[in-house]
Amino acid sequence: MKKNFYQFLFISSFLLLSNLYSYAQITFEVTFPEERSKTALDGRLLLFIATHNQSEPRFQVVDEVKTAQVFGLDVDGWKAKQVMKIDGKAFGYPIRSLANLPKGKYFVQALLHKYETFKRSDGHTVKLPMDRGEGQNYRTAPGNIYSEVMEVELDPATAKVVKLDLTKENPPIVPPKDTKYIKHVKIRSEKLSKFWGRDMYLGANILLPEGFDEHPEARYPLMVYHGHFPYDFGGFRETPPDPNLPTTDYSERFRIYGYNKIVQEEAYNFYKLWTSKDFPRFLIIEIQHANPYYDDSYAVNSANLGPYGDAIMYELIPHIEKQFRGIGQGWARFTYGGSTGGWEALAVQVFYPDEFNGCFAACPDPIDFRAYTVVDIYKDKNAYYQEGAFKRVPRPGKRDYLGHVYCTLEDANLKELALGTKSRSGDQWDIWQAVYSPVGADGYPKPIWDKLTGEIDRSVAEYWRENYDLGYILRRDWDKIGKKLEGKIHIYCGDMDNYYLNNAVYLVEDFLKSTKNPFYGGEVTYGDRAEHCWNGDPNLPNHITRLRYNFMYVPKILDRIQKSAPAGADLKSWRY
């Protein structure tokens, strides 16, 4: 018995020492030269490891199984030529430690996502990655420095030091140019600048109606197209598709060839429709509100992001309507979008019910947090697993139209944790947390759950419910706002949405159909086996409907205007 015990102790000690030894066998030593910065830098140092170089490793990190490996490390006051080490202690995704990296030949690359210091009006000082015109993307953010791609042999059991020098730098973003139909505006927001303690800006891409210059007497209804950061106004093309564009490109998402040509064809078709004789004349705007947490603010006021809702509603939109002759009244404003834009469309209609006359929310991000994708944040204890007495089952994070799971919810969150701590990954779960959460003691968003374990913080969930759970707010406040929302809410979602967003739509639909005095008077429809970005047309495939947001709701908007415009409203000047 004693002999077996000592054998066990010896083996355990050997394994422990072996693990400790292998823990530090591979080390990456990263530096940057003075020509990249003479001042010390803050940020997130990222190490990417890929099995191929068809694209640079920094572009290969995704939620799905084809992802590259990434390790992350927060750095503060990093000076030129100073060695920063990434070893087995750095947190990684999908493999958590370098010690567990399989032996093999890899392509490696390092990048510093730069942070800036913000002294906010709420008294907190935080370090965050300011958007620099790229739409909050660490891969391409201007000023981010990175290394050349290096091919190396790595074996966790063999000591090796790999040196990487961040000699390259992302260039500035060249602003898009104005055309006859597309204009661009950028304004300093007084509200946001006060909150962030520095100048902050809002922008927009504006699509002008045909005949804008020829009809100076016309005043136009406004359509606000919400969505992710738009570099330029998309989906509008004044020339036919490129005849030399190959049709051999394959879209894994839509499982078809030649999708790039389809996109150009749809954009050109929209141009022809937009300029046609009988098409109604509107202004369409896409808002640029990338911020230190994401490519988009979610268009609402937030404890962590500041008063983006009010800044957009009362600073940017009036500026655009004044400059481009908008009617400037709630009956003549409409909002629509898909995914993030779908949530925003419904949210601004609910939070500013008098300022819009209808929303068209397609595949919206979770609009009821009892179905925060596949989590009930009010009842579930753990976001990553369903838990029983003897078993725990991982919660799915993404699926296809047949229900095949691409990643778990835990996968997506651990990827974000590797890319950035304190909600600084610039990715989906972190921006939801940044928008919806109260400010934590450290000045960053208070987590809804522990990123490592998935354990849900019930106090944060309650804050979310009272302030951003649209389904709950509709139920709670219908007696106050129902009359203002009558006939305005339209929601569309595929019943096989890739991110399970239809689950929340079902819950909101149940309430809307039960409303009385007034009845909501809108619509909620589903696409059979339709995936993410289905936007309400049952007669066309997903990959086409997602390209028609800018005009598919126009008949409903015209009908709404005719039914609800106040006496004396201008219904003619824009119908030339």
Automatic annotation (TrEMBL):
Q: What is this protein called?
A: Esterase
Superkingdom of origin organism: Bacteria
Does the keyword Signal feature in the UniProt annotation? yes
Entry keywords, A to Z? Signal
Q: Where is the signal peptide?
A: 1-24
Q: Which InterPro entries match?
A: AB_hydrolase_fold, Mycobacterial_A85_antigen
Q: What is the lineage of its organism?
A: Bacteria, Pseudomonadati, Bacteroidota, Cytophagia, Cytophagales
